[in-house]
From TrEMBL:
Seems to be required for the assembly of the photosystem I complex. It comes from Leiomenia cribrosa. This is Photosystem I assembly protein Ycf4. It is found in: Cellular thylakoid membrane; Plastid thylakoid membrane. InterPro entries: PSI_Ycf4_assembly. It comes from the Eukaryota. GO terms for cellular component: photosystem I; plastid thylakoid membrane. The gene is ycf4. The lineage of its organism: Eukaryota, Rhodophyta, Florideophyceae, Rhodymeniophycidae, Gigartinales.
C-alpha cells in the first residue's frame, strides 16, 4: 500500500483565465487605441475610421474604458503568473501528517501551509448544493469541528468524481464520509 497520497490543486492557471485575460487585453487595447486615434486625429487601428470620433465625449470615454480593461487584464495575468490558489494536498501515513499547501499573492502571506495530524481528522465531509450557484466541495472535518476545504475553486466537479474522490480519501485515511446519501 502506498503511504503517501498527493493531490495537485489547479490554481489560476486554467484555460478560462488565459482566455479572459487575453480577450480583455485585446478589447482594452482596441478601445484605448480608438480613444487615442480620436485625440490625435490619426488612425492608430487599421480598418477603422476612429479619427473621425470627437475626443469629447466619445474619445475620452473609449480611452477610459480601454485603460480600465488593460488594468483588469494585467490583474488577471498577474494571478496567472503567480498561480494564485495553486498548490497540493498531501496525506502522509509515514509521518502521520496532512499538509494543505496553497499559493497566494506576493508578500508575507504568499504561502499558506496548514499541517494537521491524521489522528485529528474525524471525517470527510461532502457538501453538494444544486441550483443557480452549485457547490460541490470536499472538506476535512477535524475532531474539534473545523472544516478545511480540499477541492479547488471554479467549475464544480461531476457528482460521480466528487463521490469517488471523497470515498477514496476516506478509505485512505480510515475515516467515515458525511453528507453522501
Amino acid at each position: 500500500m502506498n503511504n503517501i497520497r498527493i493531490e495537485k490543486i489547479l490554481g489560476s492557471r486554467r484555460f478560462s483565465n488565459y482566455w479572459w485575460a487575453t480577450s480583455i487585453l485585446l478589447g482594452g487595447l482596441g478601445f484605448f487605441l480608438v480613444g487615442l486615434s480620436s485625440y490625435f486625429k490619426r488612425e492608430l487601428l487599421p480598418f477603422t475610421k476612429s479619427s473621425e470620433l470627437l475626443f469629447l465625449p466619445q474619445g475620452i470615454i473609449m480611452t477610459f474604458y480601454g485603460t480600465i480593461a488593460i488594468l483588469i487584464s494585467l490583474f488577471l495575468w498577474s494571478t496567472i503568473i503567480w498561480n494564485i490558489g495553486g498548490g497540493y494536498n498531501e496525506f502522509n501515513h509515514e509521518n502521520g501528517k496532512i499538509t494543505i499547501f496553497r499559493l497566494g499573492f506576493p508578500g508575507k502571506n504568499r504561502i499558506l501551509e496548514l499541517t494537521y495530524s491524521i489522528k485529528e481528522i474525524q471525517s470527510i465531509k461532502v457538501n453538494i448544493q444544486e441550483g443557480l450557484n452549485p457547490k460541490r466541495e470536499i472538506y476535512l472535518k477535524t475532531k474539534d469541528k473545523r472544516e478545511i476545504p480540499l477541492t479547488r475553486v471554479g467549475q464544480p466537479m461531476l457528482l460521480s468524481d466528487i463521490e469517488e474522490q471523497a470515498s477514496s480519501l476516506a478509505q485512505f485515511l480510515g475515516v467515515v464520509i458525511e453528507g453522501v446519501e
